[in-house]
Specification:
Largest sheet of chain A: 6 strands, mixed
Strand order of the largest sheet of chain A: 2-1-3-8-7-6
CATH class of the largest domain in chain A: Alpha Beta
CATH architecture of the largest domain in chain A: 3-Layer(aba) Sandwich
Oligomer: homodimer
Radius of gyration of chain A: 26 Å
Helix content of chain A: 25-40%
Structural class of chain A: alpha/beta
Shape of chain A: globular
Number of domains of chain A: 3
Chain lengths: 416, 416
C-alpha cells in the first residue's frame, strides 16, 4: 500500500516549527510494510491544501493529513478537506459536548470558536483524541482513505497508532504478514559503536529489520520481525533480541516502553529500598526523572539540590575541609555527599552528583563536562567519574542519565 | 519570491531520519521575505525526484534540493536533476582534485565512486562545501533556479546561508521589503482565549501577520511585520506588540528568546535576592528549570524535593499537626513550607509546591491536578491554588510553570 503524508501549518512553512510528525508517521507506515510515496508540508491555505491533497491522492492509496484542526482562525484543514471532496460540514453534538465538558472540567472560559473542533465533513468517521480537544477524522473517497489528525505531536502519535493504522489495516486487508516490534534501549556507547557490535548478526536470515535511533543521551535499537503468524514473528524477534542482548548486555537498561527511571522504580520496589538524592550539577534533573514515575513517593524520601558549598556542608554533612582540599567537584566530595545524605535522610540508599555543566566554571584540570557520581548503601559506595563535552543542557541530561544508570547497576548487584 | 524545498533520501521516507533541513531552509527563506510554497520529501528514485521537481517548479521561482549528493549508489540527485532538464553530466577536474586531496589529507583509501561527487549537469555553478566532500550546485532554468545541496545538516546549513541565499538575492533582485519578527510568550490562557483577546486588532492594516503557537503549558504569539525599510517594519511591529501587550499584560512573561526561568534569573540578579525551593508534587522540575540558566548558582541556594511528610517536617519545619489537620496538600502546608524553607536556608525568598500530579492519590475534595503554591519573603507570603486535569507529566509541567509564574509576579511587586 502507498501512503502520502501531508503536514499542514504556516509554522512549518516559515520554519518556526520542525515537522516531526512526518517521520513518525513514515516509520509507523514502514513498519507495517507500507511504502511512503511522498511527504509534503503546506501552509494553512484552502486552495494550497486542496491542491496538495489532490497531488498526493494521485499517487497514494491513503493520505494522512496532520495539523490545522485547532480552534483558531488559521486552522482550516477540515474546511479544506470538505471543499476538496465537495462535502458539506456538520456539527457532531457528541463531540461538541465532550469539548464543552473539558472546558468545564478545567474551569476554562468557553469561547465560541472552540465549537469548530466539533465540525466534520459529511460521512467522516470521528477519531477520538484523548490527549486534547480536537478529534481527528477519516473519510473513504472512491476506495482511497484520507485522515485528518492533530498537529500536536503527542496527540498525533497516539492517534496514528491507535486509530489510523488499525483503520488502514481494516480498509486495506493485509496479506497474512504479521509484524512484531521491540525497542532495546542502551546507554554508554555511540550509535556507531552500537552498530559495530551487532553488525555480524544476520538479521535478514531471521526475517528481522534493525534500526538505530539516537534519543539523546540514549541509543535505541528497534527490531521489526515479520512472520506468517504471531508465533513465527515472535520467535524471529526473540532470536534477534537474544543475539543483541548477548553483545550489548553492559549497555542495555530497558526494553519496549520501559524507561530507566521505570526500571529503577521496579528494582527499588522489589527490594523494598528507600532512596534520597543530592544533586549539584544536575540541578534537580535526577529527582525530576525519578518523580516522573507514579508511586515514586513510596521510595523517594527526599531530593536535595545542594548548589552551594554551605548546603553541601549543612544538609549532607560533608566536612568543609574536604571541599576545601579536594574541591566541590571531586570523588571525595561526591562520596561523602552520598554517604552523608543517606544517614541524614535515614534512607537505604543515597545518590549524589557533582560536576560542571557549563558554559562557565571549568578549569584545565576539571573542564566543563566533568562529573562525579556516587551511590551509597550501608555496605559500600560506588563512585564514577566521566568527562563529557556537551552544552549545559545536554551535559545535565547525560550526567543525570549516567547517575541513574549507575544506580540501576548498583541495584542489580553489579558492584557487590 | 516563491521557494520550493525538496529533501531527498530513502531514510526520510522510512522515518529513520527526521528532516531538519526543510525547517532550517524555510526559516532562512522566510527571513528574506520569501514565501515557501511547498516542502516535499522524496525517495532516492530517478523518476520520483524528476516528478517532484517538476511539480515544485510549477509553483515556485526556485527549488532547493537537499540530499543524495554522496558517493554511494543510492545518491542519484545529480543524475536526476540532469535528466529532468535533459542536460549531460561532466566531471569538474578542480573539484575532483579537491576531493582527492581530502582523502590524502585524512589518510583515507580512495574508492572510485567518490569521483561521482565531482560530476555536475552542464551549465551548473559549483557551490563549495567546506565541511564535506560533496559540493553543491545551482542551475538557471528558464529564469528559474534549482539548487542541489548536501543532506548532512551541518553542510546543508552552511551552504544555504553562504551560497544559496546570496545566489538567490543576486538572481532575483528584491523589492525593498524588510521583515522583523517578535515572539510574545504567555501563560494562563488557552490558545483560543489568547486569540479571542486580540482578535479585534487589525493586524492587516499594521502590515503584520500573527500566529499562535502552543508550547505546553505556554501559548506563544509570533508577529511578523513587513515594511519598506527596517524602521517602518520595526514601527509596525511595535504598534502590534503594544496593542497585544495592553490586552494580555497579566499573561505575558517574556518576549523573543527569553524564557520564564531566564526572566526570573534577571529579576533575582537585579534585586540581589537569593532563593531556595521546596517541591513536593513537582518533584524537582522547578529547581531543574531554574538551574537550566547558567549562573543560577549565584542566587539558588538550595532546592529540596520534600516528598515525604517527615521531610516536610524535618527539613522545612512544617509542624506535624498542620499536616495532620489540613493535609500535606493544602494552603496551610504550602505557606509554612515556603516560610520555613527560607528561614532554614537563610535565603531572601522561599518557593514551595504541594499537590497531586497523579494518576493516583486524588480524592473528591482534592482531585488529581490540584496544586498549592507559595512564595515567601520576609514581609509576606503569596499563595495560589489551581486545579488542572492533565496526565502526570503535564501536571508536573503546568504546576512548575504556575510556580515560576507566581514567583515572577511576586518579584515584580504585583503582591505588594
Amino acid at each position: 500500500m502507498k501512503i502520502g503524508i501531508l503536514t499542514i501549518g504556516n509554522e512549518l512553512m516559515n520554519g518556526r516549527t520542525a515537522d516531526t510528525n512526518s517521520s513518525f508517521i513514515a516509520r509507523e507506515a514502514n513498519q507495517q510494510g507500507w511504502v511512503v510515496e511522498a511527504i509534503m508540508s503546506v501552509c494553512d491555505g484552502l486552495t494550497a491544501i486542496k491542491n496538495r491533497l489532490d497531488y498526493l491522492l494521485s499517487m497514494s492509496d491513503a493520505v494522512i493529513c496532520s495539523g490545522g484542526l485547532g480552534p483558531t482562525a488559521d486552522d482550516i484543514t477540515t474546511e479544506a478537506i470538505a471543499k476538496a471532496f465537495s462535502l458539506p460540514l456538520y456539527t457532531d453534538e457528541n463531540v461538541l459536548n465532550y469539548i464543552r465538558d473539558i472546558f468545564t472540567q478545567f474551569n476554562l472560559r468557553w469561547v465560541e470558536n472552540n465549537a469548530k473542533q466539533a465540525m466534520f465533513p459529511k460521512g467522516a468517521q470521528v477519531l477520538p483524541n484523548v490527549r486534547g480537544t480536537a478529534p481527528g477524522f477519516s473519510l473513504s473517497i472512491n476506495g482511497k482513505m484520507v485522515f485528518a489528525i492533530p498537529g500536536v505531536p503527542a496527540e498525533a502519535k497516539l492517534m496514528v497508532t491507535d486509530s489510523v493504522i488499525p483503520a488502514l489495516r481494516k480498509h486495506f486487508p493485509q496479506d497474512e504478514l504479521y509484524i512484531v516490534k521491540q525497542t532495546i534501549k542502551t546507554f554508554g556507547l555511540s550509535e556507531a559503536a552500537v552498530d559495530d557490535k551487532v553488525k555480524d548478526i544476520n538479521f535478514n536470515s531471521l526475517g528481522v529489520n534493525i534500526g538505530f535511533y539516537p534519543v539523546f543521551p540514549e541509543n535505541h535499537i528497534v527490531l521489526i520481525a515479520r512472520g506468517k503468524n504471531q508465533n513465527e514473528a515472535q520467535k524471529n524477534l526473540q532470536k534477534a533480541q537474544d543475539e543483541i542482548s548477548a553483545r550489548l548486555q553492559d549497555y542495555i537498561f530497558a526494553y519496549g516502553e520501559e524507561t530507566l527511571e521505570g526500571v529503577i522504580a521496579g528494582l527499588l520496589t522489589e527490594k523494598k529500598l528507600t532512596i534520597a538524592v543530592a544533586e549539584s550539577c544536575t540541578g534537580g534533573m535526577i529527582t525530576n526523572r525519578l518523580t516522573d514515575v507514579s508511586g515514586s513517593s513510596d521510595y523517594l524520601e527526599r531530593g536535595l539540590v545542594t548548589y552551594s558549598n554551605i548546603a553541601k556542608i549543612s544538609m549532607l554533612g560533608v566536612p568543609a575541609e574536604i571541599i576545601e582540599k579536594h574541591g566541590a567537584v571531586s570523588e571525595e566530595t561526591v562520596r561523602l555527599m552520598a554517604e552523608g545524605l543517606r544517614k541524614l535522610a535515614g534512607t537505604d540508599l543515597g545518590l549524589a552528583s557533582t560536576g560542571i555543566a557549563g558554559p562557565t566554571g571549568g578549569s584545565p584540570e576539571k573542564p566543563v563536562g566533568t562529573v562525579y557520581l556516587a551511590v551509597a548503601d550501608s555496605r559500600q559506595t560506588a563512585c564514577r567519574h566521566y568527562a563529557y563535552r556537551w552544552d549545559r543542557q545536554r551535559n545535565k541530561e547525560v550526567f543525570s542519565e549516567a547517575a541513574l544508570f549507575l544506580l540501576k547497576n548498583f541495584l542489580e548487584g553489579k558492584f557487590s
